[in-house]
Design brief:
The complex is a heterodimer of chains A (186) and B (139). By secondary structure, chain A is an alpha/beta fold. Chain A is built from 6 helices and 6 strands. Chain B is globular and about 35 Å long. Classes of the chains: A alpha/beta (186), B mainly beta (139).
């Protein structure tokens, strides 16, 4: 049985629901943040994810980061050597989707590895009448940039665990691949 | 008298007493089992470290490490009975070598430094994971 550890950066514009998703996922859906409280530094939450059909698990250190630019200098220093990346936007907020390119560039610049498992999360799908970003458009953007796309509604407890499980799985596969490489070198 | 290069082998009485990553399929004991085909892997995040305790206090002139994808490496030594009071011995940036085991020779800043314990701190890497195949210390 092996235990991996991964630093998972959670980033995106402010008030798209990053902290809510992190809290929901780490509490198995029992803790929904009803009131908004701005994240000003990096909040680290550890959550263990089991890899199905193996005895292995991954400790995800979720680095919930502030979306407001005023805190970025301080927080982005702590993004060094990320293991995986969860990029969140709000499907009712076009600007938060447009910012994704910027967030992706910032986080990718912090890694010295060729691969960085990453997911794009369109949150707040419960507000369907106010939807401003088309699902297909978001999906295309994600594929073009090498991310897996998920839609979630933290409020309705929908799919909130899927993006993180996907990241854990990708990270695990990357480890297995790397170990095979290490074996082939001898 | 221990032969040169033997210091860090388990056959010479050395032991890995700490490693920050442990996949039981690739444990840190593989670093010093004398088998070039086995290795220790880190399992995510940096820094990572392992400590080797030698069978006594030895004078060390050269350390050789076989590894893959390690970038910044720092070695510290201690002559205490217990593995405490480590002093920096040498620090090096290893070059990136793709698909090859990188063999790196490190010379302590003070040649002929005495050590009972060697601490290897991997500060950063070229990937999410690294492998260390073997470490040897020459007197």
């Amino acid at each position: 049985m092996g235990k991996l550890t991964a630093k998972c950066i959670v980033a995106g514009d402010s008030s798209v629901g990053k902290s809510t998703l992190v809290q929901l996922f780490s509490s198995n859906g029992s803790h929904f943040l009803k009131n908004y409280s701005m994240t000003t530094g990096i909040d680290v939450v550890m959550k263990t994810v089991q890899i199905p059909d193996t005895g292995d698990s991954i400790e995800l250190f979720l680095c919930d980061s502030p979306g407001k630019a005023v805190f970025s200098d301080m927080t982005e220093m702590q993004w060094d050597q990320p293991g995986c990346f969860c990029l969140v936007f709000d499907v009712t907020n076009e600007a938060s989707f447009s910012s994704c390119t910027k967030w992706l560039q910032k986080v990718r610049s912090k890694t010295s590895s060729a691969q960085l498992p990453a997911v794009l999360v369109g949150n707040k799908t419960d507000l369907s009448d106010r939807r401003a970003v088309d699902k297909l458009e978001a999906q295309e953007w994600a594929v073009r940039h090498g991310l897996v796309y998920f839609e979630t509604s933290a409020k309705d407890l929908e799919n909130y665990e899927l993006p993180f499980q996907s990241l854990a799985k990708s990270f695990y596969h990357m480890y297995q691949e790397r170990v095979e490489n290490f074996k082939s070198l001898v | 008298m221990t032969k040169a290069g033997d210091l860090c082998l388990s056959a010479a009485g050395a032991r890995v007493i700490l490693a920050t990553s442990s996949d039981e399929r690739h444990p840190a004991e593989h670093i010093m089992d004398g088998n070039p085909e086995t290795f220790w892997t880190t399992t995510g995040m940096f820094p990572q470290e392992f400590i080797i305790s030698l069978s006594g206090v030895f004078k060390i002139n050269k350390i050789t490490i076989h590894s893959s994808l390690v970038k910044n490496l720092r070695i510290e030594t201690s002559i205490s009975k217990e593995p405490v009071n480590f002093e920096p011995c040498t620090e090096k940036v290893l070059i990136f070598v793709y698909l090859l085991i990188y063999i790196c020779f490190l010379l302590p800043q003070l040649s002929g430094i005495q050590a009972a314990h060697l601490r290897f701190v991997i500060l950063s890497a070229y990937d999410h994971f690294v492998a260390v195949y073997s470490v040897s210390g020459d007197t």
